[in-house]
Amino acid sequence: MIRTVLGDVDELGVTNSHDHLFLASRVLPGQELDDVEAAFVELQRFRQAGGHTVVQWTPAGMGRRLDALPELSRRTGVTIVAATGLHQPQHYDPEWLRKSLPRLEELFVADITERRAGLIKVAGGFHGLDPHAVHTMTAAARAHHATGVPVSVHLELGTAALDVLDLLCDRLEVPPHRVILGHLNRFPDRWVQHRAAEAGAFLAFDGPSRANHATDWMLPTSLADLADAGHAAQLLLGGDTTTAAARGAPGMSYLLTHIRPRLEPELATQIFVTNPRRAF
């Protein structure tokens, strides 16, 4: 079963596998996603384009608005999967972080069991894992073992994917198929992408139409390359809208109106429908 903000389900339909309806960070002042009606409009557009589910990766302490998500799901008819977890330390008020770090496992499990979070989102560092990443991933692994929900990982600029898998899967015994690696397209190293896929993890390509990342123009080739190598069942796509300036331009619907038509129909169905149901 998949835990959504309105209860557990076994189908998701066409899914945006990584996005943000709400998000606030100390490193993005003035760019908060905190407008409920703007989120409503964005979900409507996604629904009108043929979308059914949005997976919000916003972790604890970053304005994820768990209180607003159920009503938004009811109003729009879009299924929403919410996250718990913790990002890199620079995104938080130091005092909040100091109080939260000793009780992360407890926080994550409570979010899942009491607040209907269906995902644990954590973050790696640039080309490696610092002590904060190791601490949060250890808590995430323990919460996964207690609840069964998957662990998604922000890879800083797409790096350190194999370090993450070594920690989460080899050392902390999270099954690889319960790990979702995000932002691999931002560091399009074919060798790393294939090693991560061979390990059994899900690969989330996200944030299309960003001029500073290897996104749209490389995306179809990267996905087709992995599919041809036998990894079509591990691929996911998401919009990853993170700032108010990016909302609606291109917006969540861009995945379906501009990216999906560039994929072979069978592969598109697998990426947008079949794989999210298994991943989440």
Automatic annotation (TrEMBL):
Secretion signal span: none
Sequence positions that bind Zn(2+) 1: 18, 20, 121, 240
Gene3D superfamilies (alphabetical): Metal-dependent hydrolases
Stored SUPFAM superfamilies: Metallo-dependent hydrolases (SSF51556)
The keyword Ion transport appears for this protein: no
Lineage: superkingdom: Bacteria
Family classification: Belongs to the metallo-dependent hydrolases superfamily. Phosphotriesterase family.
Entry protein name: Phosphotriesterase-related protein
Organism: Kutzneria kofuensis
